[in-house]
Write a structure and sequence with these properties.
Length: 175
């Protein structure tokens, strides 16, 4: 796959920030530090990003685009949703290092805000007749479950965690 120079620069900046976050406190990392580590100028950083947080949001967007690309069908049943949840959790696990760095820097709120925003947009577009609180319920559930799973070192399989999520959504009583 061929990438444009702009795409390479963005990726260098992302990798630089993540590498710096491994060794330094997030609050102490400057844009100059990131640009220097990425091998780009400060102006190049600001051409693509307004802040360090934008770099992290770019990581989320990049993964969301991959996730959307991998979705080959519109979900129609519980089993479809379980597969989608398992795919999302697999991507989360594949990016475990990013989420550990966010947790270390106490930046989990960026992840929750991103989930809230994307679930709200999706529901507004695809399910406009649904209750406006519903996307936040799903976003909050995914956030809390994935952060607990991260805390447990992602030991359970993505499929097992996805099944737990679906069991909660399709909760049935014995009555």
């Amino acid at each position: 796959m061929n990438y444009s120079p702009d795409e390479y620069s963005k990726q260098y900046i992302v990798q630089a920030l993540l590498a710096l976050m491994k060794s330094y406190l997030y609050d102490k990392i400057t844009v100059i530090d990131i640009a220097k580590k990425a091998g780009v100028g400060r102006a190049t950083f600001y051409r693509y990003f307004k802040s360090k947080e934008d770099v992290i949001r770019f990581c989320f967007d990049h993964n969301r685009q991959k996730f959307v690309f991998e979705q080959r069908y519109y979900p129609r049943c519980a089993e479809d949703y379980k597969e989608i949840a398992a795919t999302a959790l697999t991507m989360f696990k594949n990016n475990k290092e990013l989420f550990l760095l966010l947790k270390k820097a106490d930046l989990q709120s960026l992840y929750l805000d991103y989930l809230n925003s994307n679930f709200a947009q999706t529901f507004e577009r695809d399910y406009p007749d649904k209750d406006s609180y519903l996307p936040y319920i799903y976003a909050g559930m995914l956030f809390n479950v994935s952060m607990k799973w991260l805390e447990d070192d992602c030991k359970q399989s993505p499929q097992s965690v996805a099944e737990t999520i679906l069991d909660a959504i399709y909760f049935k009583t014995d009555n």
